[in-house]
Amino acid sequence: MENRLGVVGIVIENREHIAARVNAILSDYGHCIVGRMGIPYRERGVAVIALIVDGTTDTIGALTGKLGSLPGVKVRAALTGKEK
């Protein structure tokens, strides 16, 4: 299976309670994360993370699936249509 390049957007509610679990998952998938930007948006009570990823659709799907299964975490991915 070929790698795809893409972006993953993550919105986290109740950051104080779930941040350690989110970071553990991101660490497990560090091999396919090219870049990461995280912003705590305190006025809205959420944190927003943007990831640049380069991996197979299976790997990126597993990453987003694990993150999305956490309570208060919303995840969306956009991947290139062309395989590398």
In short:
With 84 residues, the chain is an alpha+beta fold. 31% of the residues lie in helices and 43% in strands.
Textual characterization of the structure:
The chain is α+β, with helices and mostly antiparallel strands and 84 residues long. It has one domain: ACT-like. Chain A, domain 2 (Alpha-Beta Plaits), CATH 3.30.70. Helices cover 31% and strands 43% of the residues. The chain has two helices and four strands. It has helices at 15-28, 57-68; strands spanning 4-13, 33-41, 46-55, 73-79. A four-stranded antiparallel sheet has the order 2-3-1-4, with helices on one face. Strand 2 and strand 3 (46-55) form a beta hairpin. The radius of gyration is 13 Å and the shape is elongated. The termini are close together. The model has no long low-confidence stretch (mean pLDDT 94). It comes from Moorella mulderi DSM 14980. This is Transcription factor NikR nickel binding C-terminal domain-containing protein.
Estimated radius of gyration: 13 Å
Tell me the major beta sheet. 4 strands, antiparallel
Instruction: Provide the β-strand percentage band.
Output: 35-45%
Helix content: 25-40%
Number of strands: 4
The CATH topology turns out to be: Alpha-Beta Plaits
- Low-pLDDT stretches are none
Question: What is the assigned CATH homologous superfamily?
Answer: ACT-like. Chain A, domain 2
> Which CATH class?
Alpha Beta
Shape: elongated
Protein name: Transcription factor NikR nickel binding C-terminal domain-containing protein
Organism: Moorella mulderi DSM 14980
InterPro entries: Acetolactate_synth/TF_NikR_C (IPR027271), ACT-like_dom_sf (IPR045865), FeFe-hyd_TM1266 (IPR023860)
Pfam family, one: TM1266-like
